[in-house]
Structure formats: C-alpha cells, structure tokens
Amino acid sequence: MIIRTTVTFSVLLFLARILGKEQVSQLTFFNYVTGITIGSIAAEIASHDDVHYLNGITSLVWWSILTLFVSYITLKSRKTKNLLDDKPKIIIKDGKILEKELKSTRLPVVDLNMLLRMQGIFSIQDVQFAVLETNGQLSVFKKAAQQNATKQDVKAKINVPNFMPFTIIIDGKIVKENFTGQQFTEEWLDRELKKHGVNSIEQVFYAEIEIQSDGSFYMT
C-alpha cells in the first residue's frame, strides 16, 4: 500500500504539472469536475488494494489525456468553449437586475446580494455593470460616483515602478531565484539589512522589495 500510494502520488503530481494552471485553479465548472474526478480516481488507487493497480493508473492517465484534449479544443474553438463552459453573463446593468439573464444563471437574488456584499457593495443601485463569470465569481463595475478616487483624479504625483514588488527572504532564507535578472546581489542585501538594524538574514522571517521609479528601495 505504501508503494501504491507513493507511485500514485508521483503520477498525480506529474499530471497536475502537465494539466497546467487553468486546471489547478479550477477556472470553470469543467475544470472543477475534472479535478475532483482525477482526485477520486487517485484516492481509489491509493486506498483500495482490491482495485487493479495498472487499470487504475491507466484510468487516471487517460482521464488526464481527455482533459488535455478538451482544453486544446476549447483553446482553438470559441464555440466549443462556450458550449462547455458557457459565457459570462451581464446580470446587472445601470443599477437594475436583468431578470431574464439572472434566471438563466439559476442564481437566487439572495446569493447575488451576498456576492455584492463580499465586494463591499450593499446596494444594487451602486452597480453600473455586474458580470457573472463562468467560474461563478461576480465581476462588478461600479457607477462613476461610487468609484474610489485615483491619484489621477486628485492630480497627485504618480510614480511608475520599474518592477513589481518581489520577495527576497522567507523564513530566514534568501529566495535566490527572485534575484535572477535583477540588479541586486547578496552583498547589497546585507548592506540594506544592516541599514534596518538587522545583522543576520536568519533574523528575518519575511522581506520584500518594492522598487520605485525614483530608484529608492523599501523593505518590510
């Protein structure tokens, strides 16, 4: 059983890597169902010695191949993708619920209100557009009067960062791969830590760098 479980675990890990991020993140109902099925097959192989091992592995691999095939077809054909995953639907427009579209999604109004509240919206009148995505999430575009003011709105100075923030230390260890392609060295990191009163990397649980357009660096 230990051997069966170890081999099944390795195969499942390999298949998860092959299937890609879309399957792992379960972006659609199809991805969700496929992920559950693959996990169920793997569990049957690993936990039931009355299941023929080779047949179980064959089923696991073949299901993954079928998933890859369907993913390829939906990538090439928008019609097929819409058939399998449906399309996003606008269910609120200009502060009013589109009753017909909402009924077609079989989403109760109370659940719609819950999805809005989860985004900090307590009145449907504040919504310009609301789109129910194929993964069941609600994307909301607020009315102009309800949107947060940006720096451009208040005419504040805008500094455009050259790079996105990245992690450099986790649990006292340097994340060396994040230094790839950056103009930083471990010696530079030591100097920056000492500026913050830190004498050893082992003392730091987590640190990240945000590079501003003026060339300054920030650590947390």
Topology:
Blueprint: H1 2-19, H2 21-25, H3 29-47, H4 53-76, H5 78-85, E1 89-93, E2 96-97, H6 99-105, H7 109-117, E3 127-132, E4 138-142, E5 166-170, E6 173-174, H8 186-195, E7 206-211, E8 217-219
Antiparallel strand pairs: 1-2, 1-3, 3-4, 5-6, 5-7, 7-8
Helix pairs in contact: 1-3, 1-4, 3-4, 4-5
Give the terminus-to-terminus CA distance.
46 Å
Read across the widest sheet, the strand sequence of neighbours is: 2-1-3-4
The beta-strand count equals: 8
Helix and strand content put the structural class at alpha+beta
Q: What is the N-to-C succession of helices and strands? A: HHHHHEEHHEEEEHEE
Beta-strand percentage range = 15-25%
What is the CA-atom radius of gyration, in angstroms? 25 Å
Question: Any overview of this molecule?
Answer:
With 220 residues, this protein is an alpha+beta fold. The protein has helices spanning 2-19, 21-25, 29-47, 53-76, 78-85, 99-105, 109-117, 186-195; strands at residues 89-93, 96-97, 127-132, 138-142, 166-170, 173-174, 206-211, 217-219. Strands 2-1-3-4 form a four-stranded antiparallel β-sheet. Strands 6-5-7-8 form a four-stranded antiparallel β-sheet, with no helix packed on it. The chain is flat.
Q: What are the key terms here?
A:
220 residues; alpha+beta; CRO Repressor; 3 domains; four-stranded antiparallel beta sheet; 8 helices; 8 strands; 45% helix
Structure at a glance:
45% of the residues lie in helices and 15% in strands. It has 220 residues and is α+β, with helices and mostly antiparallel strands.
